[in-house]
Amino acid sequence: MTVGLVVVCHSRPLGRAAAALASEMTQGRPVAISVAAGLDEGTFGTDAVAISEAMTAADDGDGVVVLMDLGSAVLSAETALELLDDEQRERVVLCPAPLVEGLVAAAVTAGTGGSREEVAAEALSGLAGKEAHFGTSAPAEAGDGSAVVRVLNPHGLHARPAARLVTEMRSFDAVVEVRNVTTGSGWVPASSLTRVTTLGALAGHELAVRASGAQARAAVEGFVRLAADAFGEVTEVLADPRERYVNHPTTGPALHRGASTSHHYRVSGGSLPEACGQAGIVDNSDVAGGSAKATGGAGDTERLLSGAPSSPGIAVGPAIRLHEQPLQIPDEPFQGTEAEQRRLDEALTAAHREIGQLSGDIFAAHVVLLEDAALLDDARAQIAQGLTAPRAWRAATDRAAGEFDALLDPYLRARAEDVRAVSTQVLRALLGVPPATVDGDGILLADDLTPAQAATLDPTRVAGVVLAKGSPTSHAAILLRTRGIPAVVGAGPVEAKVIALDGSTGEVVADPAPEVLADFHQRAERQKASRDNARANAAKPAVTTKGVTIHVGANIGSVEEARAAAENGADLAGLVRTEFLFLGRDEAPSEDEQVAVYRAIADALGGRPIILRTLDAGSDKPLPYLPAPQEANPFLGVRGIRHSLAHREMFAEQLRAIVRVARETPVSVMFPMITKVEELIEARRLLGDVPGLRVGMMVEVPAAALRASDFTPYVDFFSIGTNDLTQYTLAAERGNADLLALSSGLDPAVELLIQNVCRAAGEKTKVAVCGELAADEAVVPRLLAAGVQELSVAPALVPLTKQAVRAT
Ligand code: PEP
Ligand code: MG
């Protein structure tokens, strides 16, 4: 038996040389080594077709082991596998060993007649000699000091989960290393946040971990546990990742509305009002007088800017600015390695103290960055080479931030922001530059804010914020929302003395004319009165002006949210996302556990009806205990009902639990992601005939909306999930902040689909909408006009949604 070898790498000369070196080691025993490397003699690249041909050439019936260099070599090798017929594919092993060392070890083992598995295993330990030589961590045996895990976090291993990983791994007496198997990265120390995050580990990627030292086994076990717990990011995994902003009680509609619109920005041509009272909604007469004087007559100009609504609320006030001394690194003499190192250490301690006073995950990640071994080592190495502490620190942090900038994933790329924020904080301490201050009370105009600046603004003085740069998903924007400071971001440079802004629509008016100011003033008052009124009437039914009662329910994903729903006057739980029970744990919940939780939800709602949606797992919400193959397009993959029908035992258990609760309390059941009538029929067959149990389906896929009339014989109600229906109709991923312009608001195409569903439903079948659009007051009248009879929204938005119904 001779197993063949295939070398896949970016450079043809490198591939040939590696093969020649390996052949030298086989002691004259012939081993077939095929090389698929480079696009030609001089062009770097890999080609799947050439790789599949090399696989065929090296396989004389005993199969092949493939060794790859990195990145696209791995992906091309996987593609090449697809090009082989089933029988041949079975005989191919893609081996994650290092190319040169692995190839040499593999060739020797293949030459002695080893099996494919033996050859691959030998290749995997190809680094052992080198590691032993340098006394670094030798890869431990599987089950002892190594493991492979899958990343469950929807946004991958970004700064916060990575920070958690690094913190935990540092607590072990072990040298722990991790690599991204999916991208074929090298090993990085698990003690370094910058190195771990630059693995570019996305949701679904596989990470290998290895450890050596006294607590190697405990460290690896800890790592595996942590990975199953999504590195502590449980709440984000439980909820759909997008809900972090689309479903947020205060931010959701704000981001949905207006994100796609351009915003009016007026610049008055005359002189500007001199004084503007205090921050907040300023006294109308003061400003109106000043502004009228200033802007009266010709010369007013209008221009449109695109800004993003980022934190809801209306604010008017004088423009104020951040005062910060520029961070200029002086040309100063090097004071010696020890002295510079001491300077850096002192500055790190000072920054640590400052950041430690701020609470929140973001700052916890910053603290970990301050302790990052790779970052600190890099800075120390620069000092050792004669750079002053500030220069060394800047060089090290620039390099780390640059590594993030180079990543493909936008979410991970944005983490460069964290490194720069920490860099600035330490540099300020090094150079003795005080933190930025705000020069008065009013609306803060700034280029951008660091998270620390956003976290320390005083809301009693800063009534609103307009940022020239930034995005609604930046840390600064998130903090402003959390702190209730109205904000518009990405508005471009604004020069003004007075600013009026609406953080729900993204509108920014610079130096507003008196009538504009009066308008903002009235809007703010209306907004406040409307909120107060909505809250006071939350428990009453929502009846349109024509006397039609529309039930307004709540979308919930926990017992706590069920309580919030009841407090906010929800008429029902229009959508219970049962996946919260299934995610972030080691095994599926038992039937009894499910019954207990569904009962608790029903109790919390005090006997109001609840609509239990069966598990909407899979793809972007993978279950750790049901590992699934990686999917290139998870949203088009095995999710919702497809997942349940693929795991029937678990599905049947959930259906049994739902039926048991339905005997005691008003429960309906609905199935997510139904695309074909056959799926619905099969789901109903598994559910069985349960007298009195109302059965519905989510309409989230355009195919289902278009063929709604084919589904009506099998359902009592439709619940339109506009979050998914919008993303599938517009081919715009719902969590992608860059596509907000496409996916916000009620698109006419989606509206047509909703109208079609309502038409098909007729008298017999009820139609509800449970996507985020149901809470958009501008959209509610259109939904009701189409024939929608029930709405379900985030618990906190029930009062305002009822109000929107009453106004219709
Ligand atoms: C939807 O898609 O609109 C919906 C309500 O379901 P989810 O947000 O849970 O996917
Ligand atoms: Mg959905």
TrEMBL record:
Entry cofactors: Mg(2+)
Keyword Transcription on entry: no
EC number per UniProt: 2.7.1.121, 2.7.3.9
Uppermost EC category: transferase
PROSITE patterns: PEP_ENZYMES_2, PTS_EIIA_TYPE_4, PTS_HPR_DOM, PTS_HPR_HIS
Annotated Gene3D superfamilies: HPr-like (3.30.1340.10), Phosphoenolpyruvate-binding domains (3.20.20.60), Phosphohistidine domain (3.50.30.10), Phosphotransferase system, mannose-type IIA component (3.40.50.510), PtsI, HPr-binding domain (1.10.274.10)
Locations listed in the record: Cytoplasm
Keyword match Cytoplasm: yes
CDD domains the record matches: PTS-HPr_like
Domain HPr: 144-234
Keywords, in A-Z order: Cytoplasm, Kinase, Magnesium, Metal-binding, Phosphotransferase system, Sugar transport, Transferase, Transport
Region: Disordered, residue numbers: 286-310
GO MF terms, alphabetically ordered: phosphoenolpyruvate-protein phosphotransferase activity
Domain PTS EIIA type-4, first and last residues per copy: 2-133
InterPro entries, A to Z: DhaM_N, HPr-like, HPr-like_sf, PEP-util_enz_mobile_dom, PEP-utilizing_PTS_enzyme, PEP_util_C, PEP_util_CS, Phosphohistidine_dom_sf
Catalytic activity: dihydroxyacetone + phosphoenolpyruvate = dihydroxyacetone phosphate + pyruvate; L-histidyl-[protein] + phosphoenolpyruvate = N(pros)-phospho-L-histidyl-[protein] + pyruvate
Subunit record text: Homodimer. The dihydroxyacetone kinase complex is composed of a homodimer of DhaM, a homodimer of DhaK and the subunit DhaL.
Entry similarity comment: Belongs to the PEP-utilizing enzyme family.
Task of the protein: Component of the dihydroxyacetone kinase complex, which is responsible for the phosphoenolpyruvate (PEP)-dependent phosphorylation of dihydroxyacetone. DhaM serves as the phosphoryl donor. Is phosphorylated by phosphoenolpyruvate in an EI- and HPr-dependent reaction, and a phosphorelay system on histidine residues finally leads to phosphoryl transfer to DhaL and dihydroxyacetone.
Protein name in the entry: Phosphocarrier protein HPr
Organism this protein belongs to: Paractinoplanes lichenicola
Gene coding for it: ptsP
